[in-house]
Amino acid sequence: MYTHTEQFGVVIVSLEGDITMQNAMTLRNWVVDNLIKKGKSKIVFDFTRVNSVDSFGLGTFVSLHKTALSANGTIAFANVNDNVKKLLTMTALDKVIKVFPSVMDAVNSIK
């Protein structure tokens, strides 16, 4: 469903398409069940192939952030386009979840 790799103990989840009410809960459940519950709570979401995120999608990432923190982990975003960056800034979510220009920058920050 989602492709992921691991580097230095950090899981990189490659997202594709828009993150919306139609698919955000599926993403959340997949991350919790397949990663966080299995002890992989340091996660970078690669937004290279994501065009937009709606408010439900943002809420899903807030929930994942809280879940990862409770498992002694964290999440970060990489390769976010200008539209999504603007939304993260407007909602101040970029102050809660770190945003990096590349996957390697994000991995190095949270490993």
From TrEMBL:
Start and end residues of each STAS domain: 9-110
GO molecular function, one term: anti-sigma factor antagonist activity
Membrane-spanning parts: none
Pfam families xrefs: STAS
PROSITE patterns to which the protein is assigned, alphabetical: STAS
Family: Belongs to the anti-sigma-factor antagonist family.
Matches recorded under NCBIfam families: ant_ant_sig (TIGR00377)
Name of the protein in its database record: Anti-sigma factor antagonist
